[in-house]
């Protein structure tokens, strides 16, 4: 990324951009879809997805529970959309396909224009079952688009844009792609693309000039060229390892983290075994142990950055992120330091218990 930039209007620039768009399509596993790269963080991807494909004022169903589902809903409301949520869904529960089908079946006048799913809820460590949600939508015959926020999923968890029938997927550069924040990546199905003539007002995030210019390898405004160099390298790294191998590595490392948590006798936020995230684990601290203090202590004493409990989990939970450029050694280091921070905070555990449990889980796999 740190090299002299090139002229983004030069005749050579498409040599960078066109293969990058092609490789990005592969990342999303789409042969028939269209991808777009916006210089923005993941939140800009939410805005681009909504405003390009949904007429102003339309209704969306947002059936997830967690901080990022809430923030996506807030963004949608501020953009003028009507948002229906399952307010009683517990944080830690995945979006329920049967209730999605029920909600769509009762929407007889077809007001709901899209179902918004956070594929991997980074606040709770819960992964949604996108294929089951697609089947639930199909079972109703409802025409709503299916949108997936894959910010903490894409390039770390299996994702099949075409095969799973997702209409718009969004990710950001700073997680599975191992880059700094600053690039939002979108994948759109043909149905989503057909909808962009009837979307809401937008300017910076307008897909029309973006896709028109992308066809010949250019952008409608100055792209973040270092991010494009970074993306080229991160996609090459993912290709080198192989996406199935990348997904398997995340599954293996996550199993080790969960084994450690079990050995510490702590509980995780995710309520369903099959929904446990392979990119982040949200762990409750025992009663009487303030998670915010634990996180601060881990940072100041051990230089270890743990994720904080978000929303209602603030002070009650901490998060271990385990995605991207990561191997067993790095995870063991983190687990060892978490143990020390927990011990310093008065949690009773045997030093090394979590580390040994992770090792045993990997030795057995
Ligand atoms: N969606 C999810 C699932 C996230 O984890 C995040 C950020 O962590 C976002 C959206 C927002 O992305 P950004 O912070 O890049 O705007």
Could you list some keywords that capture this structure?
alpha/beta; 7-stranded mixed sheet; 3-stranded antiparallel sheet; 12 helices; 41% helix; binds pyridoxal-5'-phosphate
Structure description:
With 365 residues, the protein is an alpha/beta fold. Helices cover 41% and strands 14% of the residues. It has 12 helices and 12 strands. It has helices at 13-27, 42-53, 67-78, 97-105, 130-140, 190-194, 207-214, 225-241, 243-263, 291-302, 328-344, 353-364; strands spanning 34-38, 59-62, 82-85, 112-118, 120-121, 126-127, 145-149, 168-172, 184-188, 280-284, 307-308, 317-321. A 7-stranded mixed β-sheet has the order 1-9-8-7-4-2-3, sandwiched between helices. A 3-stranded antiparallel β-sheet has the order 10-12-11. The protein has a two-stranded antiparallel sheet with strand order 5-6. β2, α3 (67-78) and β3 form a beta-alpha-beta unit. The chain is globular and about 60 Å long. The structure holds pyridoxal-5'-phosphate. Pyridoxal-5'-phosphate binds at residues 41-43, 68, 118, 122, 149, 151-152, 172, 181.
